[in-house]
Write a structure and sequence with these properties.
The complex is a heterodimer of chains A (333) and B (284). Chain A has 333 residues and is mostly helical. Helix content of chain A is 71%, strand content 1%. Chain A has two domains: 4-60, no CATH class; 67-326, MetI-like fold. Chain A has helices at residues 4-8, 10-23, 30-61, 70-75, 89-120, 131-138, 141-168, 183-207, 211-219, 224-253, 256-261, 279-286, 293-326; strands at 79-80, 85-86. Chain A has a two-stranded antiparallel ribbon with strand order 1-2. In chain A, strand 1 (79-80) and strand 2 form a beta hairpin. Chain B is an all-alpha fold and 284 residues long. Chain B has eleven helices and no strands. The model of chain B has no long low-confidence stretch (mean pLDDT 92). Classes of the chains: A mainly alpha (333), B mainly alpha (284). At the A-B interface, helix 1, helix 3, helix 5, helix 6 and helix 7 of A face helix 1, helix 2, helix 4, helix 5 and helix 6 of B.
Chain lengths: 333, 284
């Protein structure tokens, strides 16, 4: 028996609809079939884009595999395009150090800020509260770089680094001449740039805490802060970790701001005051001018490492965030 | 925490932590206001009609502008929109309409993960995909890079917007005998349309502010260019080059160009906000 839709569309495509409907219940006319296949193709484009990214990175990095093993590439510190010696360790180090320090700076502020927005601020203010954070996210990274280069770097050179050196100079992290450009400047700017990412996701997951549990804690005599620590934080912990991982992914891949303030000097230093180099920065600086195919391949290899790392980080982060947002119903499966 | 501590102590901790959270909130304003104030105060002096209409001049010569870079940004963002908007919005509609199966879930997950891929990596992809086959840097390569960046974010945003369309609208249309595809296009997507336009505006704003993926795809150009096969200047790359140069008058140009970029990005964001507000008002 033909369905309701088949009857209504009957004058237009009676035979086709009836025939098609027999084999594919649910799609009853040409329009539906066209629409559905278009949608499937468009959806598949996301997977195609993912495939294109992996394929092209691999093709571009391929010439490198001739005389470099992956392990050798990662552990080698020399980077000398003239001599065709390519090692990623210096850049990996710079990327890791700046990202970690930026997390140390940004995470407490981001969590406190998210708690303020979701728990402590008057609820009437609502969306207005997230505006400064959204604005921070909207500023292009090259503008952060400009700001960092001409404002943050001179400030670090003149005030912050001499002060840190004087009072905390016994720690190797804070030794050496205060030059401004370097790991510390990059970390500070990265901290500002990843703050909106962490806050946006943390606010979302904190909002999923059932109001009843918090009220129960308050009713039992907990102060507001105790209620937050007993209900909101445990409930959204995995999501907050996910938010931090998303921020870390952003910090690892951030290019322009870091390129402009890290000093672009291929060396490994224990001091945060020293100039360094990062994965995205070396790609940005050398790719357009790389002439030998091995040089291009080595830079693409750095890109591949960066892609693999951020891909895994983001995947892990999304799993955590999605699990919190779905709620804790599937304990027993 | 220790609930056996004295009531006063617990009260002080409570107030203290609330204050710390509020301070962190205030702390976020410092970089925001600092960036905005410095870009405006240092950039405003260089604003003039010729800054928008003229080609850059060599160091030491007075005047000159970033007209070609503005045009280049407009041109490449336009190219990116041609590719990125239909694919991004389309994939979003797919996720909203068919996204509940295994394939849909994996597409959604991939879109989420791809939206975190560093833009410099996308630059390498566009280089291998477009620059190498063509043999030289081009506006097309820049546009492709920006489009790849647009698609995943736009897809997720579109999905959210299509999903909030009330099911009763779709059911009403189906009950009147309208075919599924017509219902999807004429009722569901049309209802979500103003939201989708908002998401597109934000995607355009993001693309206009990208630098890293253009550095070695579109490269740069000292002259006017409207040939998609040629290297093309962009506002963001101009800011970068001016900023890292050793000349003071180029630094001033970097600040002015940054002000222009912030105005463009700001206007797009404001437009999207106004649209969102009028949409919410209409729905009430």
């Amino acid at each position: 028996m033909p369905s309701r839709e088949a009857i209504i569309d009957a004058p237009a495509s009676e035979a086709a609809a009836a025939q098609h409907h027999a084999s594919h219940p649910g799609t009853s006319n040409l329009g539906d079939r066209l629409f559905n296949s278009t949608l499937w193709i468009l959806g598949a484009m996301i997977l195609v884009v993912a495939g294109l990214i992996v394929l092209n990175l691999a093709v571009a990095a391929r010439p490198l595999a001739k005389d470099h093993s992956l392990w050798g590439f990662i552990t080698e510190t020399q980077w000398d395009p003239v001599e065709d010696r390519f090692g990623a360790l210096t850049f990996l180090y710079g990327t890791l150090v700046t990202s970690m320090v930026s997390l140390i700076l940004a995470v407490p502020v981001a969590i406190g800020l998210s708690l303020f927005i979701t728990q402590f601020a008057p609820p009437k203010l609502g969306r207005v509260l997230t505006m400064p954070v959204e604005l921070l996210a909207a500023i292009p990274s090259v503008v952060y770089g400009l700001w960092g280069l001409f404002i943050v770097v001179p400030w670090l050179r003149a005030s912050v680094e001499p002060w840190l050196g004087k009072h905390l100079g016994w720690i190797p992290l804070f030794q050496g001449p205060p030059i401004g450009l370097g790991y510390l400047a990059s970390s500070m700017i990265l901290a500002v740039m990843i703050l909106p990412t962490i806050v946006a996701v943390s606010v979302e997951v904190m909002k999923t805490t059932p109001e009843a549990t918090r009220e129960a804690a308050l009713a039992l005599g907990a102060t507001k802060w105790e209620a937050v620590m007993m209900t909101v934080i445990p409930y959204s912990r995995a999501g907050i970790v996910g938010a931090v991982l998303l921020g870390l992914g952003r910090a690892l891949g951030e290019t322009m701001a870091v390129t402009m303030v890290i000093g672009n000097s291929p060396q490994i230093s224990a001091s945060l005051f020293a100039a360094g180099y990062s994965l995205p920065a070396v790609i940005a600086n050398e790719f357009a001018e790389a002439t030998s195919s091995v040089h291009v391949a080595a830079l693409a290899g750095l890109g591949l490492i960066l892609f693999a790392t951020t891909f895994l980080l983001n995947a892990g982060a999304r799993v955590l965030v999605n699990a919190v947002q779905r709620g804790p119903r599937r304990v027993s499966g | 925490m220790n609930l056996h501590s004295s009531f006063t102590y617990r009260k002080v901790v409570d107030r203290g932590m609330a204050l710390v959270c509020a301070l962190f909130f205030a702390l976020a304003f410092i970089p925001l206001l600092s960036v905005l104030w410095l870009v405006i105060s240092k950039g405003a002096a260089g604003l003039s009609w010729s800054f928008f209409t003229q080609l850059p001049k060599p160091v030491g010569e007075v005047g000159g502008g970033v007209g070609n870079a503005l045009l280049g940004t407009l041109f490449m963002v336009g190219l990116a929109c041609l590719i990125g908007l239909p694919l991004g919005v389309g994939a979003g509609v797919f996720l909203a309409e068919k996204g509940d199966g295994t394939v849909g879930r994996s597409v959604r997950f991939m879109a989420e993960v791809l939206s975190g891929v560093p833009s410099i990596v996308v630059g390498i992809v566009a280089y291998a995909l477009v620059v190498i086959p063509m043999g030289h840097f081009s506006a097309i390569a820049g546009g492709v890079a920006l489009a790849i960046l647009m698609i995943p974010t736009l897809a997720r945003a579109t999905e959210e917007l299509v999903r909030v369309v009330p099911a009763s609208l779709r059911e009403a249309s189906l009950a009147l005998g309208v075919a599924n595809w017509r219902t999807s296009i004429r009722v569901v997507i049309r209802t979500a349309m103003s939201g989708i336009v908002t998401a597109c505006l934000l995607a355009v704003a993001r693309a206009a502010g990208e630098t890293a993926p253009l550095l070695f795809t579109a490269l740069n150009n000292q002259y006017w260019n409207t040939d998609p096969r040629q290297p093309t200047a962009s506002l963001t790359v101009a800011i970068f080059n001016y900023a890292i140069s050793p000349y003071d008058d180029w630094h001033a140009k970097a600040w002015t160009a940054a002000l222009v970029l912030l105005i463009v990005v700001g206007l797009l964001n404001i437009a999207s906000r106004v649209l969102t507000r009028s949409r919410l008002k209409g729905a009430r």
